[in-house]
Design goal:
This protein is mainly alpha-helical and 321 residues long. Helices cover 78% and strands 0% of the residues. The chain is built from 11 helices and no strands.
Length: 321
């Protein structure tokens, strides 16, 4: 759904405050429908579709508004709260998960908080309304085609990691408890870099930062392949999540923000093509190819993402940022 939704905004829709408010209500509806569909696989697809629609609208709107307000140097200090939320969810569920009822109640509670805060923020911050009028620049993928391919491949490699890291590590003798600590450690590293990353953006070009992050991501997957049973090496690999995700994410959306006039639409396609299509195909690929070479495959995919990024040119594309 994250991949499909942006195409509706090419001509028919405009990502504005009204659409954002609608997405908040769709989010709440999806959480409510989870209660009624949890025991039926096919009916359960419906709220998941609605959830994908909501996130396909909400995340690009909030991200672009944050960049408008804070610029890329300070963006990380707001984005780190998303990482803290992810970590908190993981720790709470790991400790108190006793059935799907706990998850559904927690979903509904956080959904209500998101809806209330979303309506509150957009009704008090006039800066959020900037750039919501329809823009007539024709959205062209070929303007940064090598970047789009690189973003897709990057998240394809991460799709392997997100879906099979826990299974991979436990199958090599690392306890589930230790794996939960590895996940938490990666988020701590991610949050730390989000907070301090402004110095990177003052000193280096965005494309250079993305290339550096991709190189470290490739090294990360290779470490997991070469030393699957080493807890120490796993911690070292997880520390690289700070660069592979936090630094790469901020650099990528900042670069797209810089080169496209329709900034919210470019952000929508960023989530759709990378996390949506890339993550989806990466998880399917990992499911079919899972085995001892799975992170070697992930390293090769990350390497290809780095190769394609080498062909991306900045000259003549950048706007004021």
């Amino acid at each position: 759904m994250r991949f499909i939704i942006p195409f509706f905004f090419l001509k028919r829709l405009n990502l504005n405050k009204k659409i954002f408010h609608s997405a908040l209500l769709i989010l709440l509806l999806s959480y409510l429908l989870f209660y009624f569909s949890i025991n039926n696989f096919y009916f359960f697809i419906v709220p998941n579709i609605l959830l994908g629609i909501a996130f396909g609208i909400m995340l690009p709107y909030i991200d672009t508004s944050a960049l408008e307000l804070l610029k890329k140097e300070k963006y990380g200090k707001t984005r780190l709260f998303g990482s803290l939320g992810f970590m908190l969810y993981s720790l709470v569920l790991a400790r108190y998960l006793s059935g799907y009822g706990v998850v559904l109640n927690l979903f509904l509670l956080t959904g209500l908080i998101v809806v209330i805060s979303g309506f509150s923020i957009t009704s008090t911050k006039k800066s959020f309304y900037k750039g919501t009028k329809r823009l007539y620049e024709k959205f062209r993928f070929k303007k940064a085609i090598y970047l789009w391919i690189s973003l897709f491949l990057t998240q394809m490699s991460f799709g392997i990691f997100y879906n099979f890291f826990t299974i991979y590590e436990t199958s090599h003798g690392i306890s589930l408890k230790s794996v939960s600590y590895l996940w938490t450690f990666s988020i701590i590293c991610e949050v730390t870099l989000f907070y301090f990353q402004s110095s990177f953006f003052k000193r280096f070009e965005l494309l250079a930062l993305m290339k550096f992050a991709l190189f470290l991501t490739m090294i990360r997957w290779l470490l997991l392949y070469l030393f699957p049973a080493s807890l120490t090496i796993s911690y070292i690999a997880q520390s690289l999540h700070a660069f592979g995700f936090a630094l790469h994410h901020t650099a990528a959306i900042s670069y797209l923000y810089r080169i496209y006039e329709n900034k919210k639409l470019s952000n929508q396609f960023y989530y759709g093509i990378s996390f949506g299509l890339g993550g989806f195909l990466g998880s399917l690929f990992a499911g079919y190819m899972y085995g001892k070479y799975i992170f070697l495959y992930a390293a090769f995919i990350a390497f290809m993402a780095l190769i394609f990024l080498q062909f991306q040119k900045t000259k003549g594309l950048e706007q004021n940022f």
